[in-house]
Amino acid sequence: MNCQELVDFLMEYLEGELPPEHQAAFEEHLRLCPPCVHFLATYKEAIVMGKICCQCSEAIPKEVPEDLVQAILAARRAK
User: Fold this and answer.
1) Which long-range contacts (CB under 8 A, 24 or more apart) does 43-48 make?
2) What are the extents of the domains in the chain?
3) What pLDDT digit, counting tens, does each position of 6-43 carry?
């Protein structure tokens, strides 16, 4: 398995859905390729951060504050 194939199989690997023969090749590639180990680690961190961000307990306002609308419009006019 090469680096591109590892990326192609990444989601299946993380979801535990990679066929055994591909999983063995995937893990062997990780054993031999530090950049892919780093890529996998940062990808896992991104998933965790995404889940944390989605657990926001603050209520989203139903209406956009008028001062925000005016700031956006002013920024558009300034372009």
Assistant:
1) 43/10, 43/14, 44/14, 47/14
2) 3-78
3) 999 999 999 999 999 999 999 999 999 999 999 999 99
